[in-house]
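thread: overnight batch results

M.L. [08:02]
morning all. the overnight job finished for the chain we discussed friday. pasting input first so we're all looking at the same thing
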Amino acid sequence: MDEKIETYDVEPGEITFRSVGRFIKRCWLRTVIYIAAAVLLATLVLVPLKFILRSAPTVSTRLEFVYEGVNSGLDPAGGTFEKDAIRSASVVSSAITQAGLTSKLTDVDAVRNAIVIGDVYTAEYLSLKELADKGDADAIKQLAGYTYHPTKYDVSLGNLKALGLEKQEAILLVEKVVKAYKEWFASRYTQKNIYSTSIFAPPVSETNMDYLSYYDLYTGQLTSMSTYLQQMTEKDASFRSSVTNKTFSDLIQMYQAVDSSYETFKSYIVSNKVSKNLTVTRNNIETTVKKYENSKTSLEQTRKALQDQISAYSPNTSTSTSNGTTTVVQTYPPEYHKLQTQLTSCILELATVTNALAEYEMRATAFRADDVVDRPDDDPLITSADNMLAKLRADSSALVVAINDTVKDFFDSKLLSNAVRVVQPAVYVRVSASIPTLYIYIAAIAVGLIAALIVTQVQYKRGAKTVEETESQPQETKEEQA
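M.L. [08:03]
and the structure it wrote out:
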């Protein structure tokens, strides 16, 4: 019986791509088995390794701030935004209470230290920074002197095991931290009672106050309100409060009506020379006149000094000719322009003081007259003046309340309600070690393939050797064997 010997259609010692292909074709099962074994081995190593090398669990959420000024690093009040307020003691303590974890989390500072507030950078900024790091001149130029202010922050709670928190407890606590912070944020930056009604309340004692003194005090307060209302109208002219049913333009009209009443009141007092205490009235007027006279004199001296300094500067003159046209350019140093700015401010202030002085001189003339006398409380002029003043106080207080309620509603509904947003809810995260899984599997496949080829090559050599030995035997031996 003939013995079959496995042979390969390849010259001994010859290894080519074609021969390798024939090896794989003839030995595909071996190749598949070897590759599968290598991949299985890699999996058996990777799975426990990734489990062992996992990071400690954390719970993270992402907040976004949306209000005017946040891109410049400002808070709603115009101050510097402080991200650490998110994990302040008051916020964390409130969150622990709201989460019902007061018995478990007794150390507020330990919880605060476990909370990390991370900046979130935009893709555009990271791309620009990457280009700058690579030496891109334009990117470097753009980043020079530029400060990036994040509008999004990641709030992460770690060290869960040391805090004794289960997964759901940790998630709940982070949610309550966000809730407590939003409550703090709204309370901190809401515009609540920006003006007080107490200034318009009747005083306990009127020793040094007369009718005109009240006029000056009250109208001074109303003027600042008018300026603020103009600013709010520019911010949002269409806003109508659901609390007062008024726009900022409506409030300006209210102010104008009250202001007109004050002017009527002043005219009544001055034209009728109404005073309960003539000595107080005259002293107040004379003191104010002297104050404005001194201010006017000082400002006039400042104005002249600035004008003298400015006139001492001579411009630098340069001449250029182009196409037959001669151009003369005069330039001044920076100090010259600073003096001009100071002079403009001085002139404006001097005009204000001059107008105020004229007003008080008019009052002084009226109350210096010989026919001016103190009037008793039951005098009809006094009674009328008291009634007018009482109504002005009530109208002024009503205006203040309307302004406060409308402004608070505006900030609560238009700004603060959407100023802090949760763009990613609290999630439990446990990151595995960064292992290049894809490359490891590719390497495992390569190892399996190479092993299959090596084994196939070894078997090829054995087969070739057997064939050679068989062919070298004498013919008679073969015949005997046959």
